[in-house]
Design a protein that fits this description.
Length: about 400
């Protein structure tokens, strides 16, 4: 038992706190240990970082810790941030987005069902709890897009405490779809969710990033970290229960097993791993996010995808896409075989039809000749029959004449 405790403590220290040296790579998380960072835990536990030749330490965050500032101040080599990362880029900061693991932001607006708040228009005149400044951009973007001005609602500082919603201190609050709705469900409280992406505000979440200096000076390392973390997320998405237990055992998460399982299922759904390559980023999506920040007056700079978006030398095809390609290839091959068979059969049929047509044409010509000959024979027979009749008549008349003469002589 003592050995197990010592081993657990050692493993946790190595993975989360650890004694680091100059060769240790530090990744700053954006919140406390939970399934939200499962890919990083899996990459560590499965040895993916070690296979690439690097030692990695994960730094837990908490209130007041901004992972972007931590990386810019060189307190960490890499960090995990929301889509506000692009705001720093628009302001001229040398940040580079490496991978976006959550394809659709889990940030939603939550209201009690009894409040009858079910759409953005229902928020007019209401008290809404969401973060100040850049962290509230998801909600501000939604309200701004639908023409709801800041003087048409009351903003309340965010606490993430659902009791504020239950006790009526606020009418609606920003929540993570992976967290607060589950808390209400466990307490038997019905709720409504207003999802910004249903109204065209579709941000990335949990974006791995670094600085331009790090990328230019250590591209091989950056490629390795991106590659290993991608493998980690693929493993975590396929083994959620295992990673949940790992988080409980080694990272001492404040969440219960059931809470982490719920978070795991919701997180994997937002990743869309079977349809979208893990970590995939789309230029148009980032342009749209940048446009949202600019429309809110948070930045005036121009989006430069060449500087902001990392393009890896590695490439991978998501499982479902690969399966679809294989299936389509098989279908195409079968289709081509069917077409070839039909073409061959059609060609053979045309040959047979041509041969039969030629045979029938020849037979028809022969029949016409035979019919003509038969007609000639018929005409000849008719003529002979007519001549025979004439001869019979002539003979009959002669016989009758002779008979008459004999009769006269007898008398």
């Amino acid at each position: 038992m003592v050995c197990e405790i010592l081993f657990s403590t050692y493993t946790y220290a190595e993975n989360s706190i650890g004694v680091e040296d100059d060769s240790t790579i530090v990744i700053q998380l954006k919140w406390k240990h939970q399934f939200q960072f499962a890919g990083f835990y899996a990459a560590l536990s499965q040895g993916y970082y070690a296979e690439e030749g690097y030692k990695v330490r994960l730094k837990e965050a908490g209130p007041g810790i901004n992972p972007i500032e931590e990386v810019l101040k060189e307190k960490a080599d890499y960090g995990v941030a929301n889509s506000e990362l692009i705001l720093y880029h628009l302001k001229g900061e040398p940040v580079v987005a490496l991978s976006a693991y959550i394809q659709h932001s889990p940030i939603v607006l939550l209201a009690l069902k009894e409040s009858q708040i079910a759409s953005p228009k229902d928020l007019l005149g209401k008290r809404i709890m969401f973060p100040e400044g850049v962290y509230g951009s998801n909600t501000l973007g939604l309200l701004n897009k639908l023409g709801i001005n800041q003087d048409q609602y009351t903003q309340v500082p965010l606490t993430y405490n659902v009791d504020d919603l239950i006790n009526g201190k606020v009418d609606a609050m920003v929540a993570y779809v992976t967290d607060q709705p589950y808390q209400l469900t466990q307490r038997g409280i019905a709720y409504n969710i207003i999802d910004p992406k249903e109204y065209g505000i579709d941000f990335y979440d949990d974006v791995l990033f670094t600085t331009e200096d790090k990328l230019s000076s250590s591209r091989q390392e950056v490629e390795a970290i991106v590659r290993a973390t991608q493998r980690g997320w693929q493993y975590a998405a396929s083994h959620p229960n295992e990673i949940v237990q790992l988080i409980i055992d080694q990272y001492k998460s404040e969440r219960s097993y059931n809470e982490l399982i719920h978070e795991a299922n919701a997180t994997i759904e937002l990743m869309v791993p079977k349809l979208v390559q893990v970590g995939h980023m789309n230029r148009e999506r980032w342009e749209s996010i940048a446009s949202t920040y600019q429309s809110l007056g948070m930045a005036e700079g121009q989006f430069d995808p060449e500087r902001f978006m990392f393009v890896s030398n590695d490439s991978a095809v998501p499982p479902l896409t690969r399966d679809l390609v294989q299936a389509l290839t098989i279908v195409v091959l079968i289709g081509l075989c069917v077409i070839a068979l039909m073409w061959h059969m059609n060609r053979r049929l045309k040959t047979l039809v041509a041969e039969k047509t030629m045979y029938l044409s020849k037979a028809n010509r022969e029949l016409m000749v035979y019919t003509k000959q038969l007609k000639q024979k018929e005409d000849e027979l008719y003529q002979l029959n007519k001549e025979l009749e004439q001869r019979i008549i002539g003979r009959t008349e002669t016989i009758n004449k002779i008979n008459h003469e004999l009769t006269q002589e007898i008398k």
